[in-house]
Amino acid sequence: MAERTNPFTFLQQVRTEAAKVVWPSRRETVISTIMVLIMAILASIFFLLADQLLSFGVGFLLGVGG
């Protein structure tokens, strides 16, 4: 079983580990956000086109497509 540490030691360890965190700059955050939005838009367009194509194909095969 792991050895229990007292709360003071635990908080010191948490502060030490939190100091090691490297936060992204504002520019990196903005660029990442824009890239995520672009990829989401591209994925939605792809799935819209795939859905329309499959809908047309199924309608054509079933003879209800006109």
UniProtKB/TrEMBL annotation:
Is Transport one of the keywords? Answer: yes
TM segment ranges: 30-50
Q: Tell me the membrane topology, using the record's own terms.
A: Single-pass membrane protein
Q: Which GO terms describe its molecular function?
A: protein transmembrane transporter activity
* Major site of localization recorded for this protein: membrane
InterPro entries cross-referenced by the UniProt entry? SecE_bac, SecE_sf, Translocase_SecE/Sec61-g
Instruction: List the keywords (alphabetical).
Output: Cell membrane, Membrane, Protein transport, Translocation, Transmembrane, Transmembrane helix, Transport
Annotated compartments: Cell membrane; Membrane
- What's a GO cellular component annotated to this UniProt protein? plasma membrane
GO BP of this protein: intracellular protein transmembrane transport; protein secretion; protein targeting; protein transport by the Sec complex
Q: Which Pfam families match?
A: SecE
What protein family is recorded?
Belongs to the SecE/SEC61-gamma family.
NCBIfam families the UniProt entry points to: secE_bact (TIGR00964)
Question: What function is annotated for this protein?
Answer: Essential subunit of the Sec protein translocation channel SecYEG. Clamps together the 2 halves of SecY. May contact the channel plug during translocation.
Q: How does it assemble?
A: Component of the Sec protein translocase complex. Heterotrimer consisting of SecY, SecE and SecG subunits. The heterotrimers can form oligomers, although 1 heterotrimer is thought to be able to translocate proteins. Interacts with the ribosome. Interacts with SecDF, and other proteins may be involved. Interacts with SecA.
| Name recorded for this polypeptide | Protein translocase subunit SecE
